[in-house]
Amino acid sequence: MFSLSLRDNALLCPLETWHAEEFAAHMDRAREHIRPWVGQSFVTDSLDGARATLLRYAERQAADGARLYGIWLDGTLVGGVMFTSFDAASGACEVGCWLEPAAEGHGLVTPACAALLDWAFLTRGLHRAAWHCRADNARSAAVAERLSMVLEGVERESWPYEGVRYDTQGWAVLASDWRKTGRA
Ligand SMILES: CC(C)(COP(=O)(O)OP(=O)(O)OC[C@H]1O[C@@H](n2cnc3c(N)ncnc32)[C@H](O)[C@@H]1OP(=O)(O)O)[C@@H](O)C(=O)NCCC(=O)NCCS
Question: Which residues span the domain enclosing 130?
Fold first, then answer.
């Protein structure tokens, strides 16, 4: 219904329960690409599973919590960004993202995350935004760096995946840092 233009042919819009079929079709294209790097409950393989993800976010958004946004490139849903957590009371949120393979390397996710950070810091007055990724997820860490996030630490062997425990990097940006970036 309403959208933010990321570029001429790329839009950021709320991703809602009525998008379930589109989201399920996108997940068919994205699933194996994102599986190693995102929370396993996000990787669904059916229309019901896709709908359940959207409903979970809708319910959390209704409580002023997590929120989900899709990125449409030339009219096709190709990925998105989210507040995986959002807590106005403590002034803290966490941001996440994903793309299907064909949409990687087009500079879509960084401006989409920047729009979320603008809203969190400037509209909602939050203080801190975090980012967690597997320590070997170089593309995700590069997004965090482009967002002026600082690597604050590593949680050792905290990300179990297919029988191996990977380290998790914790990145964050503060509202005061964000204002200094000149993006705001
Ligand atoms: C993490 C992920 C979303 C990053 O996607 P991405 O496309 O690399 O990130 P951005 O949208 O910021 O795009 C930057 C890339 O676009 C390129 N680019 C192309 N056109 C551009 C433009 N007009 N403006 C800016 N960058 C542009 C940049 O050069 C950069 O590519 P490079 O790293 O190969 O040099 C993606 O790799 C992914 O979905 N991975 C699997 C899921 C995942 O890891 N999710 C995160 C969990 S923590």
Answer: 4-180
Domain count, the chain: 1
Query: How far is Cα 184 from Cα 90, in angstroms, rounded to an integer?
Result: 22
Q: Which CATH number belongs to the domain containing residue 50 in this structure?
A: 3.40.630.30
Nearest CA to ligand 1 atom 3: 98
Atom 45 of ligand 1: nearest residue by CA position: 98
**Quick one: angle between helices 109-118 and 138-146, nearest 10?**
50
Rounded to the nearest angstrom, the distance between the alpha carbon of 104 and the centre of ligand 1 is: 5
Using one digit for the tens of pLDDT, what is the confidence trace for 57-108? 999 999 999 999 999 999 999 999 999 999 999 999 999 999 999 999 999 9
Distance CA 49, CA 111 (A): 28
- Residues within 6 Å of ligand 1 by CB: 33-34, 37-38, 96-99, 104-110, 133, 137, 139-140, 142-143, 146
63 CA to centre of ligand 1 in angstroms? 31
Average pLDDT over residues 16-45: 98
Q: What pLDDT, in 10s, does the model give residues 105-146?
A: 999 999 999 999 999 999 999 999 999 999 999 999 999 999
